[in-house]
Structures are given as C-alpha cells and as structure tokens.
Specification:
Blueprint lengths: L2 H17 L4 E2 L2 E2 L7 E13 L8 E4 L8 E5 L4 E5 L2 H14 L1 E2 L8 E12 L5 E7 L7 H13 L4 E5 L1 E2 L2 E2 L8 H4 L14 E4 L2 E4 L13 H12 L4 E8 L4 H6 L10 H7 L14 H17 L4 E5 L6 H5 L1 H10 L4 H18 L3 E5 L12 E4 L15 H6 L4 E3 L2 H4 L21 H5 L15 E8 L7 H8 L2 H10 L7 H17 L9
Parallel strand pairs: 4-6, 9-10, 9-20, 10-15, 15-16, 16-17, 17-18, 18-19, 19-20
Antiparallel strand pairs: 1-2, 3-8, 5-6, 5-8, 7-8, 11-12, 13-14
The chain binds zinc ion (ZN).
Length: about 525
C-alpha cells in the first residue's frame, strides 16, 4: 500500500468515524441500502478501537451462503460474520461501519465504539450494481475516481463503468497509438460553466470559452492503481471504448480511420458538441486493425470479463457515401447500414471472445444480428431517442436471451434535474427527482421467464453539464443511495417514506464525509 493510499484510507476512516456519530434514526439502526432481513435486540457491543474497522470481529466461512451475501450477528459480547466469499465479508464490514457509533476519542487514539445488537441476513438482489462515469466531456481524475469507488463500496455497489472515449476526448493512453492522447486528449475549448443553451442552425449549443481543455488522460500506471483500489473494494471496472460512432476524438487523432478524412479535425472541434457524423469507417481494414490494437491494449490492462464497446447513436451519413463501406456491404452481403453496424459488432464480439471476454453495448447493438453472448445496456425508453434504428427495449433484449443491464434514461440518468427548488447546478434536461430514482425496478416489464437475464442496473453520470467533482457529487448523491437500495434490497415497490426517514440520518453521514450531497427535497 503506497503512502497516498494510506493517506486516503485515513481520510476515509476519519470521515466514517465522524459519520457514525449519527447511526440511529427513530431508535432503529439506519442502513442504506437496507438489509434484506434485520432483527434488533436490546443492548450494545462495545470495543475500544480507533474506528469501526478496528473492532474485533469473528469471521467464519459458510459455503452454503450465496455469493456476496453475509450473516452478521452482534451480541453484547461479540461481533461475528459468516460468508461464503470475501465479498460477503466485505459487505458485512460496510454494514458494521454504518451501524457503529463512536464515543469520544481518547489520548491513546482509541474511542468507545458501540454497535447495537442485531441479527442480519443479507444478500444482493442483483449482481450488477453499477455506477457509470463519463470522463470525456469533463475529466475528474484519479483522486476523484477513488473517492467514488470508496463511496460505492460503502453502498455495496460493485461495477464501475468507465466511459473513456467519445467525440470530445480520448482519455486512455494507448502506447501503440500515441496520437490518441497527444491530439485526442485535449480540445481547443469547452462549454462555459453557467452558459445557457441556444439554437444555432437548429442545433442546441452552449457558448464556449476560449480555453484549451486538457490534455487529460490516464496512463497505464494510473489505470493499474485505480484497478487495484477498486479490486480491494470488490468493484469490477468495465472500460468503455466507443465504436463505431462517438469516435470523434479518435478520428481527429487519426483522420485516415474515418470515411472522409479531409477536414475531419476542423469539422469536429468547430461543430460544438454532440455525436459527429465522422465515425469509424467500417469498410477500411486499417480501421478494423487499429481498433483491434486498441482492444488488445485494453484487455492487457483490464481484467474485466466484460468490455463495453459503446455502439450507440452511430450516424450512417458517411457510411452511405463511402466507397469502402459500400464495398464491405457488397462483399459481406449486407442490406443496409444497420447491417453494417451489426457486422462490425459481430467482428468485435468474436475478436474479444477469442481473448476470453464478452462484449457489452448500448441497446442499439441488439437491433442487428449479434451473438447471444453480447450483453445489452438498455438506455432508451422511447423510440424518439437514439438514432435511426429500431428500438430494442431492455425487456425485449432479455426475452431474446441477451443478458441485460438496465439504465433507462428517464430513471437512471443523473445528469437530469433533481427538481429541487433553487437548484444552482446545471442539467442537460429531463427530470429524475429522488423518488423517481428510488422507484427503479430493473425487472419492470420483463417476463418471468426472462428475468434471469437481467443482471442489474446502474446510474449514468454523463458530464456535458458537470464541470467538476463538486457538480458531480451534487448530482450523484443522494440519488445513488436510492439506486443502491433498488439493486441491493429490491424488490419494488419499496417504501419511499421509510427510505426518506433513513436518508435524513444517512445524508448527514455523507455530508460529514465531505460529500457535496444535494438535499432530499
Ligand atoms: Zn467508410
């Protein structure tokens, strides 16, 4: 463990110690997410320790318990945990952190840690409990990512979906292709914080500043440090490399990868933000080899079984005019541009499968003929969204035998407004108040026989209108607490009033940890 991590751990431990002053709400222990079964008893366990992590705990292995689940028993004389795996024991520890109250710290650095007597049997409803972060539109950096991982662990969330490439930037160093970060990790300007959107040529834009943004990106060493930090918290990091659309930064770095290389750089950086029509040329073998090289590097770095290839909102404009794309369609017997996207998806599904990985993509990838092993990430809830192709709903994807992760934008996009009075922060549009976030049910509308394909869900934190960590925390919290409960505790309907009552206490914990958490209402 490096000095930096020790320092961070101390900060978090201190914050948790402060937070545990307020562990009770109306006499009942306050836990978020709520455990599946909890029985309280008279009395408390007491121990002298520096913080809740330092108390003496008896751990036992119980192979009969499901993955990630645990039993926690607190009596006046002992604290014991049973679990089948290390993740289960880790989640029991998170529960202890929330249950503990700390007396005054003595001169020897220890405090009287008190834990109420409880019997808890707990297990997650879903195995994919995710948080997505867009580091392209705005970059938050390693320390902030680690902070998010800490808070995810505290709420028993276990997948960090890292959006690393898009039209507005490329944030992952690929040694084989240095231009990706030399050119693609910076841009000439950004949207002005506080700027109001207005229409130019029918397109909604926001005034830009004149300051260069970046270069901002992660080196392989940064990534390895973050991956180790996540692994210690039982969090899988799923990288997203966008193809064939949302490829603006990549084709700005290497214009020859686009269908129409002339003028790519000028077009992309001058056109404001939004999905550019200059996408990867699906007919160019050099482009395919380039993407294979990028994915080789990604697979070397990231141990995740699942690699997200994006696949959303790919405009067909260039493909329809491109001789190479037309030749590919003819050679492969493809009817139209939708088939061409399905072809490129199949190619990379096969490519990654040979490396022992599975592809995941936004729900657009399911509208073509793709292998059953492809995992869909459902985000659209009406046909008005997305570009061009037929909507495949999350429920339909599961029915067709695809594993699915549900992220319906009307419930799970936290760059949408919280509908708070006098909210000073800017949002991209749409409304996801806390109660709506809490209503999330990944199996909503999914037939009984397809529910096993619903892996879980996640909140998506797009960052066009999220300039820094201060903005980001406000949008993430307390809504991420609501989502944690939807994915851990389930099933819906849950009691929102009970959640709000617990959140009165839990929000104070977050604030005392230094989280810029928005109000509950
Ligand atoms: Zn082309």
């Amino acid at each position: 463990m490096g000095n930096a991590e020790q320092r961070r751990n101390r900060i978090v431990a201190l914050a948790v110690a402060l937070a545990c002053i307020t562990a009770f709400g109306g006499g009942m222990p306050v836990l978020v997410p709520a455990p599946r079964h909890m029985k309280t008893d008279e009395g408390e366990f007491h121990d002298k320790a520096a913080d809740a992590d330092g108390i003496a705990v008896q751990e036992t292995h119980d192979a009969s318990l499901p993955p990630e689940s645990y039993r926690l028993s607190v009596t006046t004389s002992s604290v014991s945990i049973a679990s089948a795996d290390a993740a289960g024991a880790f989640y029991a520890r998170q529960t202890i952190r929330q249950l503990a109250t700390c007396g005054k710290t003595g001169t020897d650095g220890t405090a009287d840690i008190a834990i109420p007597c409880v019997e808890i049997e707990d297990s997650p409803a879903y195995r994919w409990r995710g948080v997505h972060l867009d580091e392209v539109r705005h970059f938050f950096g390693k320390e902030n990512v680690m902070r998010i991982l800490d808070l995810m662990a505290y709420h028993k969330l276990n997948v960090f979906h890292w959006h690393l490439t898009d039209d507005e930037g490329w944030r992952l160093e690929i040694p084989k292709y240095p231009e990706l970060t030399r050119i693609g990790a910076k841009r000439p300007n950004s949207w002005k914080r506080g700027g109001k959107p207005h229409k130019v040529n029918g397109r909604s834009v926001i005034d830009r500043n004149t300051e260069a943004y970046g270069p901002y990106f992660y080196t392989a060493d940064d990534v390895r440090e973050i991956l180790a930090y996540a692994a210690a918290r039982y969090i899988t990091v799923v990288p997203e490399i966008e193809l064939p659309g949302h490829a603006g930064a990549a084709v700005t770095a290497y214009p020859q990868l686009a269908c129409k290389p002339e003028g790519v750089r000028e077009r992309i950086w001058d056109a404001g933000w939004g999905n550019t029509i200059d996408v990867f040329c699906a007919g160019n073998d050099e482009t395919i080899r380039f993407l294979e090289g990028v994915l080789d590097c990604v697979c070397e770095l990231f141990p995740s079984k699942v690699i997200h290839i994006g696949g959303d909102e790919c405009p067909r404009t260039r493909w329809k005019e491109c001789p190479k794309c037309q030749a590919r369609m003819k050679a492969e017997g493809l009817n139209d541009a939708n088939d061409l996207q399905a072809w490129i998806t199949r190619h990379f599904a096969d490519y990654l499968e040979k490396k022992g990985r599975r592809i995941m993509g936004w729900d657009e990838i399911l509208s073509g003929d793709v292998p059953r092993s492809a995992i869909g990430m459902s985000w659209r809830t009406s046909q008005k969204n997305g570009t061009g192709d037929k909507l495949t709903s999350g429920a339909e994807g599961a029915q067709r035998g695809h594993d699915m992760v549900m992220t319906p934008h009307l419930i799970c996009y936290y760059d949408y407004s919280q509908d708070l009075p006098d909210d000073p922060f800017q949002y991209i549009g749409g409304h996801v108040p806390l109660e709506k976030a809490y209503s999330f049910d990944p199996c909503d509308g999914v037939a009984d026989d397809a529910r096993a394909h619903v892996l879980g869900g996640q909140c998506n934190n797009w960052s066009e209108f999220t300039w820094n960590e201060h903005d980001l925390a406000w949008k993430m919290w307390p809504r991420t607490c609501a989502m944690a409960e939807a994915l851990w505790t389930a099933p819906a309907p849950r009691d929102f009033k009970d959640f709000l009552k617990r959140m009165e206490v839990h929000r104070k914990r977050l604030v005392s940890m230094g989280v810029n958490c928005a109000p509950l209402r």
